[in-house]
Amino acid sequence: MDNQRFSKRQLHLNQRHIGYHAIMIVWSFIAMAPVWILIINTLKTKKEIYTNPFGVPQTWTLDNYRSIIKGSDFLNYFKNSFVVVVGSLAMILALGSLAAYALAHWRTRTSKGIHFFFIVGMMLPIKIATIRLLQLMKGLNLLNTIWSLFPVYIAMGLPTAVFILTQFIRTLPGELYEASFVDGADRFMIYWRIVLPLIRPALATVAIYNLVPIWNDLWFPLIFITEESQKTVLLAVTRLQGQYTTDWPKLLTILTLSALPVIALYLAMSKQFIAGLTAGAVKG
Amino acid sequence: MEKQRHPAFQGGRSIKPGGVYWLRYIIPALLVYGVFMAYPMIDSVRLSLYEGTTGVRQFVGFANYVRLFTDEVVSKRFWNAFGNNWIFFAYHMILQNALGILFAAILTNRTMKGRGFYQTLIFIPCTIAVLVTGYLFKLMMNPVWAGTTLKNAGLGFLVRPWLGDRGTALSCVSLVSVWQWVGIPTMMFVAAFQGIPDELIEAADIEGSNAWQTFWRIRVPMIMPVVGMVAIMTFVNNFNAFDVVFSMETLDGAPDYATDLIGTLFYRYGIAGQHPVGIPEPGVGAAISTTIFAMLLCGVLPTLRATQGKE
Asked: Looking at residue A14, what is its pLDDT?
C-alpha cells in the first residue's frame, strides 16, 4: 500500500474514531449497567438496597450467598443442570461427529438428502413440537425427571453439529488419512484416532453453541418437570423468585448464581464463545 | 472440490464403502433427531386436527383452526398475541439489527483501538438467561426500588409503573429483549464485514469514495446474504419468545394481554390450560404451533435454499 495515502487516510480516520469510541462507550455502559446493578446489590444488606441502589455497598456482606446456598437446594439444582448440560453436549458431539464423518465422505444424492434433512432443523425451533414431545415423554415415562431433557436437547443440537462438523471434516486434506489407510486401519479407527483429534476446534464451537441455550433453557424444564429434586437451576429460579419477592438482595443473589457459571466461562474464553454462538447461521 | 481428497474416499478403489456402510455412522444421530425433533414437529400438524386430551381423541378436521381464527374469545386472544408479536419483531428488526450493523461497522474499523474490549462487553448480555435479565429488569423498573434515589437525582420522570401500563409494557419488554440480543447480530455482521475482500474497499478508496459512500454502496450490499439470515433468525426467535414475558410480566401477558405473545398464548392453550378452566387443549395448541410452523417455513426454506444452494 502506498505510504502517503495510508497515513493521510489514517489521519482522516483518527479524527472520526472519537465518535466511534463515544458510541461504543455509551452502548458498553448501557450493556453493563444492569449487570453491575445485578451483581453489586447481592453484596448489600436488605435495607441498603433501597437507599443505595446503584453504588458500591457501604457494608459489604456475603450473607446473601451464604443463606441461599445453605437454605435451599441450590447445589442440587446446580448438579441437575450440570448433568443435563454435560451429558447432552457429550451426546451431541459423539452422534454429530459420527454422522458428519460419514456425510463428509459419502457423497451421493441420498447423503445430500440426509444432510439437508438435518440442516433444515437448524432454523426451525423445536418448541413447535412441544405438545407432541410432552405426550412422547409421558409415554416413555420420563416426565418429572431430568432424563426427559436429554433427548430433546440432543435432538435440538444435532443439526448445527452435523452442519459445522461436516463442513470442517471436508476441509481436512486427504493425505492425512493416506498413511494409516494404507497401513490397514479401518475407517472407524481413522475417525477415532485421526479425525476426532483434528476437529477439536470445531467440536469446541459446537459445544459452546449448545452450552448456553441448554443451560439457559426454561421452556422444557417448565413443561416437563414439577418434582423439586429434579429441577434445573433456571426452573428453580422461577420458584425462588416467588418465595423471595420481598427480599431483593436474595433474589438478585439467586439470579447472579444462576448466571455466573456461564458469564465466568465466557470471560475466560470469549473468542471461542463469540465464534460458537454466531456459528450456526454463518455459512463457512 | 473432490480432487484434494484421497482416492479411497472418492471411489477410485474397490474398498470405497457405499451407503450401507456409512449409514451405521449416521443412524444414531438420525434416530434421535428424527424421533425427538422431526417427527414430533410434523406430527404436531396432525394433532392440530384432533380434539380432546390424551386418551380420548377425536378427529375434528379444521375445527381447531376455525376456532383459533374466528371464535369470539379464542380468536381475539390469538390476533392480539399475533399483532403484539409483530410489534415485538419490529423492535428487533429496526433497533437490534440496525444497532448490530452500526456496531459491526465500527468494530471492523482496523485502525481503531480497543475493539476486542468493546466486543467482549457488548456480548455479555447474550450469555445470560432471558429469565434472569427479565427478572432483573422487572426489579429495576419497579418504582419502589430506586424511586427515591432517582427522584433525588432529578430523574423523577423515570419513576413510573412501566410494566403495569398498557401503553408502555410491550415496548419495555421488547426493549429489554433488544438490549439482551444486540450482540448476536453485531458479531454476525462483524464476521460478514471481515469477509469483504480488502481490494474492494481499497479500490473504492482510490476512486475517491468516502467512508459513508463505501459503507452504503459496497459494504452493506456485500453483506446482504447475512442481513437476510439475521432477519430470518430474528423472526424465528421472536415468534418463539416466551421467557421474557413470563419473567417480566405474567403468563397472561399482563397488563390486560398487552404483552401476550404467541409463545405465552401457546403455553396457556396447549400446555397449562386457559384460566379459569385450567384444562389444556392440545388441539388448539397444536393449531397455534402449526400456524407458526407454516409461517416460519415460508421464511426459512427460501433462505436455506439461497445460502445452501451455492455449495
From this structure: 54
Residues forming a β-bridge with B58? B51
pLDDT of the residue at B183: 93
The answer, yes or no, to whether residue B25 has pLDDT greater than 50, is: yes
Structural domains of chain B sorted by starting position, each given as residue range(s) with its CATH number in brackets: 75-308 (1.10.3720.10)
Q: How many CB atoms within 10 Å of residue A235?
A: 25
> Does A1 map to a domain?
no
First to last CA, chain A: 29
Number of domains in chain A: 1
Put simply, whether B114 touches A (Cβ < 8 Å) is yes
Query: Residue B131: which residues within 8 A CB-CB, separation 6 or more?
Result: A216, A218, A234, A237, A238, B243, B246, B247
DSSP annotation of B52 reads S
Q: Is residue A250 part of a domain?
A: yes
Q: What is the ipTM of this complex?
A: 0.88
Model confidence over A134-154: pLDDT tens digits? 999 999 999 999 999 999 999
Read off the C-alpha cell for A168: 470442517
Other residues' Cβ atoms within 10 Å of the Cβ of residue B72: 7
Phi-psi category of residue B11: left, alpha or beta, with phi > 0 → left and psi -120 to 50 → alpha: left
Q: Chain A within 8 Å of B237 (Cβ-Cβ)? A: yes
Q: Which of B21, B41, B205 sits opposite A124 (nearest CB)?
A: B41
**Among the ranges given (A25-29, A66-70, A259-263, B30-34), the one the predictor scored with the smallest mean pLDDT:** A66-70
**What's the CATH number where A160 sits?**
1.10.3720.10
Domain that holds residue A218: 67-277
Residues of A in contact with B230 (CB under 8 A): 281
Confidence of residue A7 (pLDDT cuts 50, 70, 90): low
Whether B189 has its CB under 8 Å from any CB of chain A: the answer is no
pLDDT tens digits, one per residue of B229-262 = 898 889 999 999 999 999 999 998 889 999 999 9
**Is A22 a domain residue?**
no
